[in-house]
C-alpha cells in the first residue's frame, strides 16, 4: 500500500498509487506521490513516466476522514499543500507523464490527469469534480484542460461526470480500451515516447510547458483560496456533516 515506483522498460518508469479501498489519498500520500514523480523525472535514464493506480478506481481525491478527524485546519492546509505539490510534480516533471485511468477519477484525480501529457483510460472510467457537494472548490483549472469552457462550468456547478468515451471525443483522452488492456495501452504509448532521444523529449516538455496558455500553478492556488474561505466560514464543515448523515442513512436503508 502507498506510492510505488519501478522501472518497467528501458526509459520508462512507472509510479503506482495504491491506497485501498478507493485511492482517497491522505496528505502524506499526495506528498509521496509528488516525490516519486519528481524522482522519476530527475533520473536521466528516464524518458517517460507512467502514472497508474491499483484497485477499483484511479483516484477519489483527498481523504475526507482525515479532514473530519481534525478539529482545526491543519489537515486542510496539509491536503491543500499536498495536492498542489502532486499536481505540480506531474506538470513540471522533466519528461512526459502518461496517465492510465481506471474506474473513477474524482477531485484530486482530475488535478493529476489534467496536468498529464497523455491520458489513456479504461472503458469504465468516469471523470468528475464533486467538490461543490463537499463544500470545497478546486481543480477547475485542470478540468478546463480536459473539456471546453462551458462544459467545465456545467460539470463544476452540477458535480456531474463524463465518461472516458466523451473525453476521447474532445481529444483529451488519447485512447479508450477495456480495463484488462489499460496497462498495455499506456505502455505502448510510453515505449513510443521512450524510443525517442531523451534530450529532445526533455527539451520538448520544457518547450510545451513554456508556451502553455495558462499558469496552472497560479490558477489552482487561486482556487484553493476559496476552499480555505469556505472552511473558515464553517460552510464546508456543515456540508460535510450533511454528506456524512446522508451516507449513514443510505447504509441503514440498505
Automatic annotation (TrEMBL):
In the UniProt record, does the keyword Lipid metabolism occur?
yes
Provide any one GO MF term from the record.
lyase activity
Q: Which GO biological-process labels does this protein carry?
A: fatty acid beta-oxidation
Going by the entry's taxonomy, the superkingdom of the source organism is recorded as Bacteria
UniProtKB keywords: Lipid metabolism, Lyase
Q: Give the record's family classification.
A: Belongs to the enoyl-CoA hydratase/isomerase family.
Please state what the protein is called.
Answer: Enoyl-CoA hydratase
Amino acid at each position: 500500500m502507498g506510492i510505488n515506483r519501478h522501472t518497467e522498460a528501458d526509459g520508462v518508469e512507472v509510479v503506482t498509487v495504491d491506497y485501498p479501498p478507493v485511492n482517497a489519498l491522505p496528505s502524506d500520500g499526495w506528498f509521496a506521490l509528488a516525490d516519486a514523480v519528481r524522482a522519476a523525472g530527475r533520473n536521466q535514464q528516464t524518458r517517460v513516466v507512467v502514472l497508474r493506480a491499483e484497485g477499483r478506481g484511479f483516484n477519489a481525491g483527498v481523504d475526507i476522514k482525515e479532514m473530519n478527524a481534525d478539529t482545526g485546519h491543519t489537515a486542510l492546509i496539509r491536503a491543500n499543500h499536498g495536492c498542489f505539490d502532486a499536481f505540480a510534480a506531474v506538470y513540471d516533471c522533466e519528461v512526459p507523464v502518461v496517465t492510465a485511468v481506471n474506474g473513477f477519477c474524482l477531485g484530486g484525480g482530475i488535478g493529476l490527469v489534467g496536468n498529464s501529457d497523455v491520458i489513456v483510460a479504461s472503458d469504465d472510467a468516469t471523470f468528475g469534480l464533486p467538490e461543490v457537494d463537499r463544500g470545497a472548490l478546486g481543480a477547475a483549472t485542470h478540468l478546463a484542460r480536459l473539456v471546453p469552457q462551458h462544459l467545465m462550468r456545467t460539470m463544476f456547478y452540477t458535480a456531474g461526470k463524463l465518461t472516458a468515451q466523451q473525453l476521447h471525443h474532445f481529444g483529451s483522452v488519447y485512447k479508450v480500451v477495456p480495463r484488462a488492456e489499460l496497462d498495455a495501452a499506456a505502455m505502448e504509448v510510453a515505449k513510443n515516447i521512450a524510443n525517442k532521444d531523451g534530450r529532445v523529449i526533455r527539451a520538448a516538455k520544457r518547450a510545451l510547458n513554456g508556451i502553455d496558455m495558462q499558469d496552472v500553478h497560479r490558477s489552482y492556488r487561486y482556487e484553493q483560496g476559496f476552499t480555505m474561505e469556505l472552511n473558515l466560514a464553517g460552510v464546508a464543515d456543515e456540508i460535510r456533516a450533511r454528506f456524512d448523515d446522508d451516507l449513514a442513512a443510505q447504509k441503514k436503508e440498505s
